[in-house]
């Protein structure tokens, strides 16, 4: 590399925070593509989702962790363990807070554990467009008194305000070294997994309050056809027959609408026309099955 060529940098930034702080929306904004599902339903990000951004000569791998909360069920414990594991492995850890809520009980619990992490730390206040400036500055000051953050970012994940500056600052924090992924790659999630996640997002959008978040989607078949299109078969798994009826809807109308919405986003991600076929099956107590956790990239927690 000659003296005129700036050295390349590459590293990981973990985004941690309470459920629904806006991590998935921010990740998609940072990367400039849909890599993480966004839902009003809390705790929709289950495993670590990595989105890859290029800023100058730096490649930043953003890790969207599951929301950190007080775990009650086995799946909850696996997700929280995954979130802290993702934070521990990163070069920089950023705590994301909803500026409208300020430091609530969940945020307080995360903040209390952050001194255990040795790497540089950033504070991201999200939804700043909805908060008066004096309130915002007061919140940032009080949080920095509690923990000396290396950087404080004021952003709106929804509009993209402040996101470019955040990416520039974090790029300078990345260690020198070769890039970890090809230049045109925006996520390390295989397309099959991303397609399943997209369908799960559409499921929640359509049936927000009617469906427990244990429901899951698996991509069973992915067939690249000669005409350049992709034929995909997916199964939506629920835990009870009553839930299966809700997902299907009257005359199959609900699952049809979910499939149409998912197909559009999957086609965009796959950069190909998509033929999507959805099936709904009951699989009781899947949240106690270690194999399902491995498929989601989670460690199966033993009962304590």
Automatic annotation (TrEMBL):
Main location: cytoplasm
Gene3D superfamilies on file: 3.30.300.20, P-loop containing nucleotide triphosphate hydrolases
Residues the entry annotates as binding GTP: 17-24, 64-68, 126-129
GO terms for cellular component: cytosol; plasma membrane
Topology term for the membrane: Peripheral membrane protein
Residue span, Era-type G domain: 9-176
Keyword Cell membrane: yes
Family to which the UniProt record says this protein belongs: Belongs to the TRAFAC class TrmE-Era-EngA-EngB-Septin-like GTPase superfamily. Era GTPase family.
Protein name as catalogued: GTPase Era
Natural source organism: Salinarimonas soli
